[in-house]
Every structure is written in C-alpha cells, then in structure tokens.
Automatic annotation (TrEMBL):
<protein>
    <recommendedName>
        <fullName>ATPase</fullName>
    </recommendedName>
</protein>
<dbReference type="InterPro" id="IPR035968">
    <property type="entry name" value="ATP_synth_F1_ATPase_gsu"/>
</dbReference>
<keyword id="KW-0375">Hydrogen ion transport</keyword>
<keyword id="KW-0066">ATP synthesis</keyword>
<dbReference type="InterPro" id="IPR000131">
    <property type="entry name" value="ATP_synth_F1_gsu"/>
</dbReference>
<dbReference type="GO" id="GO:0046933">
    <property type="term" value="F:proton-transporting ATP synthase activity, rotational mechanism"/>
</dbReference>
<keyword id="KW-0813">Transport</keyword>
<comment type="function">
    <text>Produces ATP from ADP in the presence of a proton gradient across the membrane. The gamma chain is believed to be important in regulating ATPase activity and the flow of protons through the CF(0) complex.</text>
</comment>
<keyword id="KW-0406">Ion transport</keyword>
<dbReference type="GO" id="GO:0045259">
    <property type="term" value="C:proton-transporting ATP synthase complex"/>
</dbReference>
<keyword id="KW-0472">Membrane</keyword>
<dbReference type="Pfam" id="PF00231">
    <property type="entry name" value="ATP-synt"/>
</dbReference>
<keyword id="KW-0139">CF(1)</keyword>
<comment type="similarity">
    <text>Belongs to the ATPase gamma chain family.</text>
</comment>
Amino acid sequence: MSDAAARPDDIKAHLANVQQIAAIVGALRALAAAHQREARGHLAAVRAHGASLGAALSTALGAGGVWPEAGAAQGRLSILIGAAQGFCGSHADRLAEAARAEAAAGADLIVLGSRSCAALAEIRAPLWQAEMATHAAQVPELASRLADALFEALAARPGLRVRLVYIDPGAGGAGPALLTPSLWPLEPSRFPPARGPGPLLSLPLPELIADLIEEYVFSALCEALMLGFASENAARAEAMAGAQANIKRIAADLRAGWQRARQEQMTTELIELASGAAR
C-alpha cells in the first residue's frame, strides 16, 4: 500500500517541477519577444543613418571628390555576427556551419557571441572576438569596438576583402535567411556623384570622404549587429514556443496519470478496508 500511496504524490511533485520549468520558459519567450521589438524599433534609425551617409558621400563625390583606390587583394576576412546564448534552436549551429565554411575557404575570422566562439574553438583562433550585444542599446558601442578592430586589420592589410556573416530574421512573412554581404572594399557605384551646388566644406575633400567611408562602415556594422541580435531572439522565441507546447502536453499527461494513480490508490484503500472489516 505504501508504494501505491506514494505514487500520486510523486507525480504531483513531478508536475510541480514541470510547472516551474513552464514559468521559466514563458519568461524566456517573453524576454526574447521584447528584445525583438526593441531591435525593430532601432533598425529604422540605423538604416536612416546609413542612408544619410550614403547621400553625403554622393554629395562629396559630386563636388569633385575622388574615391580612394582599393589596394590589391590581400586575403579575406569574415565577420561572424554570432550567438550570445543558447536556447535558440538551430540558429547557433547554422551560424557555426557558415563560419566553418568561410574558414575552410581561407578566410580569417572575427567572431561575436560567446556561444559561437565556443562552437568554433576547434578551428584557428579568430583575429578578434567579443561578446554579442544582449540589448539593442549596446549595439552602437559594440559596433564602434568592432569597427576599430576592423580598421586595425585593414591598416595591416589594406587589400583585405571583408564580408559579414549573419542571419536576417526576415520581414513580411519571409523566414530567417543567412546573408554574407560584402563589406569592404565599398563599391563606388553605390554612391553616384550628386548633381547640384557643392556643399560648404570645413575639411579637405579626401579627408571628408575617408571619414564618411569609415562612418558608413560603422553604420553597416550597426545594422548587421542589430539584425543578428533580432534573429537570435526570434529563434529563441520560436524555440521557447515549441518548448511550451511540449510542456503543456507533458503536464496534461501528468495530470491524467495523477488522476489514475489517485483512483487506483483510493480503490486499493477501499479494498483493504473492506477486507479488514470482513475479518
């Protein structure tokens, strides 16, 4: 009788543990969704900043500025906008696979995100690595440090070809997509010289264009980091939604099991009481 009597209590304790896990999963999902909204709210400003810099470059070129010549190719560098944490489904694995492909093709790596750094520990050490932003407000400061590391690498190898590797969370119903856009050298054709009266300048045109190019690269890094931050949290929200569905199923099974066990316990107790009364 003791084993039968304990079984409903064991199931009830298991159910309580499952409910605690459900609360944690629910909090993780809500936090990931909040981070997604936060990133979307900042993306418009980041893109507007990039567009204004592009227009400024076109204006400077239209005023007679000359686009700086790119050096001869001196290898490749890939910047992985990776994953900071787990619980995001296949997101981190997808990024790690893409980074391994870049490294296998001969590219040096810059890696962001401790989860991705750990996943890539078996290949050669990155040129630079850092923790990924955990809030959208941290992106500009991280982009600034990343830009410093990038331009330091470019100073040592001016002909370095650089591209980004990140996942765009998608918009308008489109799913997440792995993107590998070229970052450096910038294509001058993207900034056609603007016609019209020349701007009032306080810097020599070559210096102005160089500064605008650096700021444009910083803006491009901000956008990629913001999209990477959004995509990780979108993946986490989706993974937590799946976990919630599984937890609901497990909890329902446990409640049904508890009811059966409780009924069996009551039946056993009645039989034992009836047997004792008969004696």
